[in-house]
Amino acid sequence: MSKVKTAKVTKIGKTKSAPVKKAYGPDLYRRNEHGLLENVDYVFNDDGSVDWRAMIKSEFLYPNKGWFEARKQSVPESIKGLDDKQLLIMLGGIKELAKMRGYHTVDFKVENVSDGYVTAKCQIDWIENYECRFGGITPRYSDVANASLSNTDNFCAKFLETIACNRAFVRCVRNYLNIHIVGADEIDRSGGFSSPSSTTEDAVESNIVPVTPTGILEKTAREKLGVSSFEDFKNHLRKLWKSDKYRNEEAQNWNSFGDISAKEARVLLALISKK
Q1: Residues 6+ apart with CB under 8 A from 162
Q2: SS in 3 state form for 251-268?
């Protein structure tokens, strides 16, 4: 009887896999050849550019209470289903976007400092990425904002320089990255109201007074002169003309506060504030 040979079974032990290296420190900020962070999942527009709006974390967004209250609507408990015009973005969200985009320097210049009024300019030198390559020239963008006793609450009125700088920074990042959600730091906290007939489209939709010389002029005119329309304000301009306190040939072409330049708005603000 022949013996049946059995195959020799070789036991194969478990192969040890190389330990997965966790991203930490420098790994979190490593960028690829396109200037994008390697550890971030980006969302892109149809034209290939980064959709920076889509990169904002929901934790930094909340309903714009003023927008709903002005329309006598209840304020939603969440941001689900809300349009950008119905939202506000926190300063932390703007800072995170700026860090994600990447920058070399952020500089502030505080100017036009007067009693109860401060203007700040924010300039950011961004790093190059595939969206903007200028042959070694640093992409640079700047924007301005102001803070005054007319557009801040009692607490913030003590820190006008800081408020103005924060507003300028938020505006600089938002406009450069094409973000249309108003920053929480940008809104008028004084409790004033701006009529839809005389503000920019974004400000109308958000129901806030633009933090600009023109927006402040409108708010101040309503509070100190008691005007309820731009036509009322033009009547006041006629009185200033007759008294030779303010004369501007261009005023006859103004149909809203939005037609007044920032320079002329500051001149008129000074005149109204003396009352």
Answers
A1: none
A2: HHHCCCHHHCCHHHHHHH
